[in-house]
Specification:
7 strands, 6 helices, alpha/beta, globular
């Protein structure tokens, strides 16, 4: 088999891993009724257990990561607070799609102690600075190292988002871009 066919096959598989979560999210919501008859994608946070997965595994936060300015950030400082931990990259189309949703969540819940942490999996600091300015990212943008990817991975595709409750457990792991209503309901369950 020629090298050209191997590269083409790998490219098709890679594109599939990126776009399958996006397409499946769109298809799942396509036929839902609109208006008052539409069911909530996730239950309102009357009980955190309803919006969160039952497993409740502990979220590892014992990492020091560099932010895009080169400052070291200790993730332990977020222990005891609700956190949305988002793995992404500047070249990722679905990641770009979800950033305005993450900015809105940070604005809405910042006063309640909630923080979005954007963890770029492979971008250099200079690219992150320009990208964060362009997308008006109002939350910490960190650079991943292999240890955090191993702890939360394997990360076969991005974006991947972890909703972490104030008690330090993972409420939900979401593959693909987050949507406003669904993410908002899950964030409310973190408190």
């Amino acid at each position: 088999m020629s090298t050209r066919w191997i590269i083409a096959a790998l490219l098709v598989v890679g594109l599939g891993l990126i776009f399958v979560p996006l397409v499946s999210t769109r298809l799942a919501t396509r036929d839902q009724p609109s208006g008052a008859d539409r069911a909530e994608p996730m239950p309102a946070p009357s009980g955190a257990a309803e919006a969160c997965d039952a497993s409740g595994a502990a979220a590892p936060l014992d990492f020091m990561l560099s932010d895009m300015t080169g400052q070291q950030v200790d993730l332990k400082q977020y222990a005891g607070k609700p956190v949305l931990l988002n793995f992404w990259a500047t070249w990722c189309g679905p990641c770009k799609f979800e950033i305005p949703e993450l900015v809105a969540l940070q604005d809405k819940y910042r006063a309640d102690g909630f923080t979005v942490l954007g963890v770029s999996i492979d971008d250099p600091a200079d690219a992150l600075k320009a990208f964060a300015a362009e997308y008006k990212m109002n939350y910490p943008v960190l650079m991943a190292d292999q240890s955090i990817q191993d702890a939360y991975g394997p990360l076969f595709a991005i974006p991947v988002t972890f909703f972490i409750k104030a008690d330090g457990t993972v409420c939900r792991k979401h593959f693909g871009p987050v949507s406003g209503d669904q993410a908002d309901a899950t964030v409310r369950a973190l408190f």
